[in-house]
User: Fold this.
Amino acid sequence: MQSYTIGQAARLLGVSPDTARRWADAGRVATHRDENGRRLIDGRDLAALAVETGQSGGGDDEPPYTTARNAFPGIVTAVKLGDVAAQVEIQAGPHRLVSLLTREAVEELGLEVGMRATARVKSTSVHIDRL
Assistant:
């Protein structure tokens, strides 16, 4: 399972590192320490928090974190596999993006809940880049 530092989690949630620390201190998300003493958040826990904050409108009053050219870095919050097709959801700050793609593409990328990914949007098509 992939884990994220407080700073990485903050960027993925679209909030400041101080806000992410306060949320962890308040028990809103569980953390553990690595061998160097850094606080880490498990990917599945971060995905759940991303969904929660996305539904409630986010955290800070800052604009959502996005990059140029319609790229939305975030965290995978759901993967639904069918026989041929798949649905992948990404929470990028306050934005929830859903992509319909082939099952083969999801398997080749190794996409799973809790991992970082970027949704790239062009017109009505959303492409997923694994980070």
